[in-house]
């Protein structure tokens, strides 16, 4: 089973039984029943229980948007904290390869290593925000963009 439900096959004008909703979204029947207990509107007065396609799509999209975390330009997403965090002491390493740059820092809360991909054009702006150590393919320069 996938980690997140699929919405591509759900038709908004159809009604689905719990088994059909589970099959079309790629989750188990137990998950669909938990969604119903957690607020998914369903027609439970009659048997079989029916779920409208449009409400199923809206419920899954609302779940996805609730899990998103906005990360600012001066923050990283820490996988251990599951939140946007600033790097410890503002120290960030930057590895430039071609058109991309990879920022690496340590979480200021839990000391976990965090990564963030950025475009190489953003490196000069980020060097003003962070104490940035830039590693290019050829050499390492502290606080200066390598051209």
TrEMBL record:
<protein>
    <recommendedName>
        <fullName>Helix-turn-helix domain-containing protein</fullName>
    </recommendedName>
</protein>
<dbReference type="Pfam" id="PF12728">
    <property type="entry name" value="HTH_17"/>
</dbReference>
<feature type="domain" description="Helix-turn-helix">
    <location>
        <begin position="16"/>
        <end position="64"/>
    </location>
</feature>
<dbReference type="InterPro" id="IPR009061">
    <property type="entry name" value="DNA-bd_dom_put_sf"/>
</dbReference>
<dbReference type="InterPro" id="IPR036388">
    <property type="entry name" value="WH-like_DNA-bd_sf"/>
</dbReference>
<dbReference type="InterPro" id="IPR041657">
    <property type="entry name" value="HTH_17"/>
</dbReference>
